[in-house]
Amino acid sequence: MIPMVDLKAQYRSIKDEVNQAMQGVIEASQFIGGEELKQFEKEFANYCDLKYSCGCSSGTDALYLAIRASGIGKGDIVITTPFTFIATAEAITLCGAGVKFIDIDPDTYCIDPNKLDNYLKKASKISGSGSAKALIPVHLYGHPVDMKPIMEIAREYELIVIEDCAQAHGARYRGKRVGSIGNVGCFSFFPGKNLGAYGDAGIVVSNDENLIKNIRMLANHGRKEKYKHFMEGTNSRLDNLQAAILRVKLKHLERWNEFRRERAERYSANLKNIDGVKIPINREWAEHVYHLYVILFEKRDRLSDILKNAGFSSAIHYPIPLHLQSAYKYLNIPQNSLPVAEEVARRCLSLPMYPELDFDKIDEICEIIKNHVG
Ligand SMILES: *Cc1c(COP(=O)(O)O)cnc(C)c1O
Known about the structure:
Elements lengths: L6 H22 L6 H13 L4 E5 L2 H11 L7 E4 L6 H8 L3 E4 L11 H15 L4 E5 L10 H11 L2 E5 L7 E2 L2 E2 L6 E5 L13 E5 L2 H10 L4 E3 L2 E2 L10 H32 L5 E2 L7 E2 L5 E5 L2 H10 L29 H9 E4 L7 H15 L1
Parallel strand pairs: 2-3, 2-4, 4-5, 5-8
Antiparallel strand pairs: 1-9, 6-7, 6-13, 8-9, 10-11, 12-14, 14-15
Helix pairs in contact: 1-8, 2-8, 3-4, 3-7, 5-6, 8-11
The structure holds pyridoxal-5'-phosphate.
The site of pyridoxal-5'-phosphate has 15 residues, from helix 3 and helix 4.
C-alpha cells in the first residue's frame, strides 16, 4: 500500500545523523532545556528570517501561547477560517476568547480577504471598533494566505495577526517566509508535517522580543527563575531530544520542500486537463510547499475506494468544516452559511505526498483517476 506519508523512508535517508544526535543528548542526559534547544530556536528563527523563537510542546500550544501572550482573552473575538484543523479554533477558546469563522477563497482554500473585510465593516458599524482583537490566517496545505490585503485590513481594524504555519514550513508569500509577515507565527512539528519531530512539538516565531519572552515564561510555569513565578503559566516546553532531531531535519527541509514541489508538478501535469478534476492552485505570489496535494472531485468517495483497491492511500482534509462540527454546535451556525468551505469539504481528496514518493507511483495514481473519469 502506498501511504499518505512515508516517515520510515525519510528516517532511512538520515538514519546515521539522527541516531548520532539522539545519542548525544542521551549521553549528556540534559533532557529539559539545553544546548540543542537553544541552537534549534536560533536556527529556526533564522530560517524564518526572524530574530526570536520559543519552542513548545505542540502546534496547538504554540497557537495557545501566542494568543494568550498577545493579551487576548475573555470578551475578545478572534477571527479565523472554518476550513482548518480544529486546533486553530481550540487555541482561541482555550484562551477564553470567542471564535468567528469567515469563509474561504474558492481557489486557495484559505480565508477570503474580501469576506473578512465585509464582515468587519458591518461589525464595526454595530459595535464601534468591535470586539475582534486578532486574526489567525492559516496557510493551508502549504499555500500561503494572500497576506497583503490581510495586513491592510488588520491595520485598519487594529487586529493582531497570528499566522498558523503548521502546514507551511518554508513557504513564501511575495518572497517573505510565512510566519514573518504578521505579528507572530506558530508552527507544529507533528511527525507528518513538512518538518516533523519524533513526537509532539511546536514553536512560536517573531521579531517581537517581549512577546517571545512572555511566551517563554508562560510555557515554563510563569517563571523567570527556578522558583519565582510571575504568573500562572503551564508546562509547554520543547524538549532537548526533539530539538536535536529537528536540528538534523531542518538542514534537509529546503531540499525536501523542493522534492514535494517536483512531485506536485508531476501530479498537476498529469491531471490538469481532466474534466471534473480541480488541481491545486499556485498563485504567482506564492511559493507553495505542498504539505498536502489536494484535488477537488465530485465523486471523491468512490475515487478514494478505487484508489484503495489499487493499493493507494488517500485522505480527506477536512470532511467537516469546523462550524458544522458537534464541538461548535453552541455557535449555532446553520448549514449553507459558509458555502465555499462546505463545498470544498464535500469534494476534497488528498493524494499521497512526501519527498520520497516515486514519480512512477504518481503516474499510476493519475492513470487511475483518468480512467475513472473517462
Ligand atoms: C497540525 C496543525 C495544528 C496543530 O498542531 P499540533 O502540533 O498537532 O498540535 C494546528 N493548525 C493546523 C493548520 C495544523 O495542520
